[in-house]
Amino acid sequence: MNAYEEFMQSVYKPMREQLVANGFTELTTASEVEEKMEGLEGTAIIVINSVCGCAAGQARPAVIEAIQEAEHAPTHLLTVFAGQDKEATARMRDFFPEVEPSSPSIALWKDGKLAHFVPRDDIEINEKETIKAHLVEVFNQVVAK
Fold this sequence. Notes:
Blueprint: H1 3-20, E1 25-26, H2 30-37, E2 43-49, H3 53-69, E3 76-81, H4 86-94, E4 105-110, E5 113-118, H5 120-124, H6 128-143
Parallel strand pairs: 1-3, 2-3
Antiparallel strand pairs: 2-4, 4-5
Helix pairs in contact: 2-4, 3-6
């Protein structure tokens, strides 16, 4: 690894650790994504993580707080890092081709299919509290059924 790559890894590390420290499984390769998604039972929240400000200020904190506050939270907490783990991110996006790729974004997976999706556009224009409240409502409606 050259000095630039080493520096960039140190920059991204806290962004990765924020979700992992809150119970998320980080998938870094396409094969890890396939292994986890194929035959996944129950519900999963999937965060397509990124380095942008709306990921740091809105998406990651909103998802973490929504999971803590929802009466019915998803069973599986998964994340891939767009721009860093490109093959893992591309493979994850293959599971929901009906939505345009965006990062950050938040997907709710249930019964082998996409149940809800929050794209970057909806993250950028909303405050963390609004996103959190929306996710809590979605979790309590979709996960509970």
